[in-house]
Amino acid sequence: MPTALGLAGLALATVPAIDLAQLQNAVKLEALLAKAQRLQDIAYATEGRNRQYLSPGFANTISWIKDTIEATAPGYYKIEVQPTTFQVPSADNPFTVGGTTYNAQGFETDEGIPVGSWTGVPVVAVANLGCEATDFPDATGAIAVILRGTCNFSVKSSLAAAAGAVAVIIIDYETSTEPISGDLGPPEGLVPTAAILYQDGQAVLSLIESTPDVTADLSITVTETQSEQLIATTKCGDQNNILMLGGHADSVTAGPGINDNGSGSVGILEIALQLSKFEPANAVRFAWWSGEEYGLLGSYYYANNLTPEEAAKIRLYLNFDMIASPNYITGIYDGDGSAFNLTGPAGSAEAEKLFEDYFTSQSLPFQPTEFSGRSDYAGFIDIGIPAGGLFSGAEVLKTEEEAALYGGAAGVAYDENYHEAGDDFDNLNHECFIQMSRAIAHATAKYASSWEGFPDRGYPIRRREASIRKRRAPHQHAGGACGGVRAVV
After folding, report:
1. Where does the PA domain start and stop, copy by copy (predicted)?
2. What's the whole-model pTM score?
3. Which pLDDT does position 311 carry in this prediction?
C-alpha cells in the first residue's frame, strides 16, 4: 500500500513544468480582492481593528495564510512557523522632573538600544537646537534636554556626551501626538537618548528656568517581545538555488493595513497557491514577515539567523511592500544603482532588468525606487544576498510627470491613507494590484525555471561593512517602501 509520502510524490510527478504565461495569467484580480477582504475581516474581528505584530489580528493573519496554503496546496510546501523574539524600546520610560512624570520613548542604535537608570541627577537645558558644541553648558553628570530639529539625533547625543551628559531627552515637534521613535545610527560616542512630547518638554524647560538646581529621574529600558512569522518552501526544485519572495504581514496600530502591506501579503500568497500547479526547477520560498512596521524586526531576525551555508542557497530575495496604492506609481528597486547611487549585491541589477523588461513588454510605465533600507530587503542586502522587488508608493506626493505616466492626481500622496485607519479594502487600486501581482508571477516563473544569465553567488557570502539602514532618512518613501524606519533627525 503506498504511503502518504509516496502519494505526494506521485502527485508531484504529474505536475507540469512552469509555463511563464500560464502562471502569470492564473493570477486573477477577483482572487486578490477576495483575500484582501479576508485580511480586513480578520483585523475588524479584533478589538484593535488592526494586524499589528503583537496583536490577535496579526496572529490570525499568519494562521489564515498557513491554513490557506495547506488547504489549497497540500503537501507542496514545507511550512515553518518561525518563532521570533525581539528587543524593542519599552513603551513606558518614566522621566520625572519636579515631581511630575512624563513618558519618554527610547532611541535605538545600529547595535541595540542604549539603556540606563538615573536618580536625582541634574537636568540642564541646551541652547538653540543642540547642533553646535557652543550650545551646551557644562553637563557633567546631567541629563541634557534638547529641542528636536536641524541636525541628526546622533549629533545632539554625541555633543551631549562630549559635554559630560549621562543621557539626552529630545523634545519632539509641537505637531507630534506621540514621542518619536528615533535612530541614532552607530553607537560610538553617544549616550542613551529618548524623546518626550512637545508640551511635556515645555513644562520641563519652564521648571529648569524657574528652579536651576532641579533634579530628575530617568529610566530607559527595553522590552522583549515574541511573535511569529511564516516561511513556506517548495518541496520540489533545487534546494541549493532558491528564489525567495517576501512581504510583511503586519500593519500599524492605526488600522487594518490593507495596502500596507495586505496587498503584498496577498500578492505573494496568490502566487504561492498558483505555483503549486507546476513543478519548479528551482525551489521557491515565500515569507510573511513580522514586525516590519517596528523596525524590520522579522526579516532581520531571519537574515541574521541564517548560517553562511543557508544564506548561500538563496540566489535572490524579492520584496513586495505596498503594491496597490490608490494614486500609484510602478516602482522597481534600483538594483544597479543608476538612479540612487546604491548598488545591490551582484544579481540585484538583473532583477531590476527583469521587471523593466516585463513592464516594457506590457507597454506599462515604470520608474526606479531607492534601496533606502526602509523595507524587508535590507537584512538580505546586509548579508550579501541580491534583492529586488516592486513598490507602488506611500506618503510622497505624485508629480505632474508621474500623473501623466500613470494617471491619478498630481500633488496628492501615492497613498493618502498611508499608516491611517483608512488603509482599508476601499483604499486599493485594482489596476495597480493586478499589474504588479502578474509581474511578480512573471519573475517567479522565470527564476523558478532557470538562473541562466544570473550571476553566481560565490562563497562565502560577503557581508556588507555597513548596514543599508545607516543610509536611510525620514520621509522618503517614494524611494524606499512603507515602514520600519525610525527618524534620524
Report:
1. 122-203
2. 0.86
3. 97
